[in-house]
Give the backbone structure.
Amino acid sequence: MDDNLRFTGVTGDNLLQSRGLVVIFGSSKYSGRPLRQLIDAYVSDEMIRAIAREATKGRLPLVATTDVASGKSVVWDLGAIAKNGGSSAKALFRDVLVASASVPGMFPPVIIRVAENGLNTDQAHVDGNATVPFFVPPALLQTTRGAPTTGRPVVFVIVDGSLSEGARTTRLTARAIFSRSIRVGLEHMLLTTLELTAATAQLKGAELQYSSLPASYPLPNVFDFSVRITRPLFRYAYQCAESGRFWTAFPGLDDMETTRATSRTDTVLCPADNPLYGFFAAR
């Protein structure tokens, strides 16, 4: 494995820490402290300075969260935050990352102090996926006039999990049906956003490529971040990328039959071999 791409030693083995009976009256099922500690292990002063340097070169590390009160998406420019420097910048940087990973109901919202119209207000923020599955800045889909032509711009989207769980047995209880309905709704929102983004990219002369886990990948729990799950997942992604089967061009109608043949003969099903590949083109 490439020395520049390796699995780190910091893991989320104890990320899901139950709040016990507090969950009845609290804002989440699990405590947010382990998640904050995990992100704190990565967000160092050196990292903040490095991001600030890259931001001066025009790189934009953008992270989306959802404002609980307004229900709107908020896109944070972590590069601008890093360039401000100081302890407050590091704290805000960390809080945005924690909020962006705080799945509603699973982890508590993060309170972020924001200056608006000369006043400081406290806002509760959660995972940006509650309102937008992924965010593609419009500038990424545009070509610069007068710039040398190097091919079509390509936008890469990594889906956190599978595009579809497929059919599954659901208990006829209120809790199970409610949970399944939310999951299906999020899946369809993701599929719709992928289609719309791909269509917009094509109109602007760009291309969208995505990668998602095949439904057949043995992922027992999407919230299990222990090393026994994440290390094999990292190795799997690396091997698929090495074999050129990590990214899927959207929609790839001409290659649909080739993809299906590959998925039948290969022992390891990679994202580009996913039978769901033809889902979009068939709609």
Remarks:
- The chain is about 35% helix and 15% strand.
